[in-house]
Amino acid sequence: MKPCSTTRRPDDMKILFSAARIRRRLDRLAEEIAHHVSNRELIIVAILKGSYVFLADLSRSLARQDIHVIVDFLGISSYGSGTTSSGKVRIRHDLSIPLKGKPVLLLDDILDTGLTLRHATDLLRRRGAHNIRTCVLLDKPARRRIPIEADHVGFTVADTFVVGYGLDYNNRYRHLPHIAELRAGSKPAVRTGT
Ligand code: XMP
After folding, report:
1. Among 57, 108, 112, 168, which one carries the catalytic annotation?
2. End-to-end CA distance of the chain
């Protein structure tokens, strides 16, 4: 039998967080988040595309905490040339549900320079959301360009390029059940920011 492509791993990758470790951490995160939910209902706005796996698993962990989740998506990306960001962001997919007066949990895969989270938070505020909390699976503080922190963080990582569990390199590796570091030699010249 051929090896399953879900678990096959190129040699130039090092696993940082296994699927089991991510699962355990998400259950703790859901407990943390549940403390801040007042009426057992929570709107989650997930930033596309990288947070889709995180969203799926976290919403099931929240359901085990008796939190009912309503989901919406925001497609947003920072762009620039090479590895430096211009600091500009573009909305590629807008929200589809009204947020006025609602508490919202904003979810992203990774907090890097901070531009995406800052822009998304400002957008939710302009749309009338109140009590916006933020949650990222990964935090890469070494690359921060603006002062912003997430309210809930899964794991902190060093300044390396990571893939798997929704995170991609040129739209590849999103399906991996773990989070892995893409090692030197295969590091991308351009950060995709999606
Ligand atoms: P900023 O810089 O705005 O960027 O905080 C957040 C977005 O940048 C992408 N990003 C990565 N994607 N591996 C990835 O697959 C990484 O190591 C990485 N670092 C940043 C990601 O799309 C995130 O939403």
Report:
1. 112
2. 35
- Burial (CB count within 10 angstroms: exposed 0-12, middle 13-18, buried 19+), residue 83: exposed
Give the pair of three-digit tokens for residue 124: 């939710």
Q: Show Cβ contacts of residue 143 under 8 Å, excluding neighbours closer than 6 positions.
A: 112, 113, 159
Question: Which burial class, exposed, middle or buried, applies to 133 when counting CB atoms under 10 A from its CB (0-12, 13-18, 19+)?
Answer: middle
3-state SS, 5-69, equals CCCCCCCCEEEEECHHHHHHHHHHHHHHHHCCCCCCEEEEEEEECCCHHHHHHHHHHHHHCCCEE
Reported as a single tens digit per residue, the pLDDT across 160-192 is: 999 999 999 999 999 999 999 998 665 554 455
Q: Which atom of ligand 1 is nearest to the CA of 119?
A: 3
Distance 148 CA to ligand 1 centre (A): 15
CATH of domain 19-160: 3.40.50.2020
Contacts of 111 (CB under 8 A, 6+ apart): 117, 136, 138, 139, 140, 144, 148, 149, 150, 153
pTM: 0.89
Asked whether residue 6 carries a pLDDT value surpassing 50, the answer given is: no
Q: Which helix (H) or strand (E) holds 180?
A: strand 179-182
